[in-house]
Queue: 4 jobs
Job 1
Amino acid sequence: MTGARGRRFGVFAECLLTGVWIAVAALPLVTAPAALAAGSAHLRRHLAHEAGGWREFVADWRAAVRRGWLVGLAGWAALALLWLDLSVVRSGALPGGAVVGVVGVLAMLLLVVAGVRGAVAWRPGASWRGLLVGAVRRTVRDPAGSLALVCGLAVVAVSGWFAAPLVAPAVGVLVAAGLAVERRA
């Protein structure tokens, strides 16, 4: 398959492969931001027609994980606290629980979308704190892009619900969506 259709299929195939690499690199869970950052760097290179493969992905992952594991740990802790908050809301013991529940779900989505945006914006030597502050700002100021990433998260969730092994390649598509949203902005 040559031509524009072949190139588009090649990009899609690279996204799927990158998703598998990200899933393997994110197995320790706290390394998820670094894995997303390395995956986005790999896709950025691929789209720029630069050479890159598994070795470059691993090198990017190593550079990102130096401080990125702290971001992963903090992110999982924040998600656990939000999940605990939502559990209290679901128990019915909290007056106005429905409003608090909606705010909790929105906060959880904001946290995940900002994390994806921060990881996609990562470059070697970048400060994770600066990346995440900018990502939160862009998440709030660009609701259309944030909604696109929420839809990408929904695709990952539905893929996992349908067949768990599909989550890995779907994450690559989410990272590609993150790159598109960040480029558009």
Job 2
Amino acid sequence: MKKRGIINAQLAGLIAGLGHKDTFMIGDGGMPIPKGVEIVDLALCGGVPTFRQVMDAILDEAEIEQYTIANEIEEKNPELLAYIREKLPSAEWNMVPHTELKEMSRNVKFAVRTGEFTPYPNIILRAGVAFPA
């Protein structure tokens, strides 16, 4: 039995399979996931698990070099934006309209659905490398 880290077998396997520049999404309970994109559905009920809980667990296991979020987060959820910036201080970032983020989600390797019920807690992450390049 695995002693620490992500114990969800599907999510652990998908993270282990990430290559440099692969993208994946963490989204809220209502984020539409395009057909054909593998979904890791962790949502249990409203607020469980939170975006932050899922993001913290993933960041403990994955190297992230870039992220994209919806520009609406600045006005609608500044606390979450501050958290994201704190967690990914050296990553490149991009802000796009939420409608464009939804379009970009068509090209992610997989999506993780949380139980988050706050505005715009959706992020596309791009895998980096865990060694000096």
Job 3
Amino acid sequence: MEAAAMTLFAEQGYRGTTVPQIAEAAGLTTRTFFRHFSDKRDVLFLRDREFPQAVSDFMASIPQEQGGVSTVRSGLAAACRGIQNWREQIARRRGIIHSEPALHERDLLRSHHLARAIEQSLTERAIDSEHAHALAALAVTCFDLAMDRWLEGPADLSLEGALTMVWTDMQGWITE
């Protein structure tokens, strides 16, 4: 379903693609499509449902004795390694989202859900809520900047490498 929709979005644009076209390309009826998705945005943001839980799982695997910043960095690094091989698909999806203003709000919601998952993981580790909230916001900002740097950078740049560079830059900006 996702691959069929992405191909149509790339060929016809997001607005120019209809649900019946997506269903047909995926070999489904429109009725079946609507049993699984509320609209075509749901296909585009399908993996976003899983990502906050995956990050929470990565963070839960980090030893309890690590502090908040270390936990966030380790969790994000593990998440980066988990999606490193999806560069082309992520770039296509991101291009579609950035080209369609109607999708920007949904993308912001993705960032919000990711921040909430990180914040919850940190508070479960007995990090006070204000600290957890700030670290989660910083983590999402760093991740989004790293994603941009990775997708726009050279092919040999890893997402984890881009994250490390952004994190280092962020530390420098904060201490100025």
Job 4
Amino acid sequence: MKKNSSVFIFLDEEIQPFGEFVVPINFELDTTKLVDGNHVLKIVSKDPNGKEGIRIIPFIVRNGPSIAIEGIAENDIVDGIIPIMINAYGKGDQKEFLIEGSETPQSTPAWFWAIIIGFIGFAIYYFTVEMIKGI
């Protein structure tokens, strides 16, 4: 009679596994009970002869409200007074999407203003040249 391998599933740096199963298994990892941030899923398998294998899977949980920041980015070098805009919004749940606050307002990018100024400058040039030709 053939005996199956077993697996022990650990989360983060826990000493005790949160599950011990005979393979093959299917299970659901409920991330809603975990704090946002970096986590590690460690699976230790043991075959019937006692040999062990380890698989480590790092993952990031982002269940909390999303935070959007405009005005400063990671590792920016800054001086003086910097205006910063912060927006945070929840995603709702898997059954209901929250539209309220889910879009972060952003300032108009500099390239847009450059295009507008270029267009206005060209329009002034064009009308000036046409007015001179008409004289």
